[in-house]
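Example 3.2
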Amino acid sequence: MNIRIALIPSLLLFAAAAQAHDFGPDIARYQQLASAKKLDSKEAIQARLALERAQGQMDQADIKMLLRIRSLTNAGLRELGEQPAFLSSEYKRLEAALANPKATDPAKIAKAREIFAQLAHERPVYEALETEAVENMKQALKLIEAAPSK
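Structure, written as tokens:
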């Protein structure tokens, strides 16, 4: 439990720094629009489905992908003799550490390069999930606007 408590502020800092899309205003707007709509209409049901998908994708990206990216970044930093990162600059720190590693062991440097290469593949997936979630949220808002009024 203590690990979770310590991890939450770090995740919140990293998530904020990663500039993840904040759905708060979109959800508030959706709820405002939905309050005046016939929620059992086809459009409203499709809107809710798009909303749930957008939220699920962001949960997936923010929890699973973000933790994987953080883990890979920190593993690469450890291999290079650096302290694990707790700031938004993790990716850039790892890249800089690869350019001038403190570690002298070629195997550790090679492992860090391998981790950085994997990170380079994981990061765009996170960004694509976020983009897709934003599009689903936009679709949810369009659909709820089109739903018939009560």
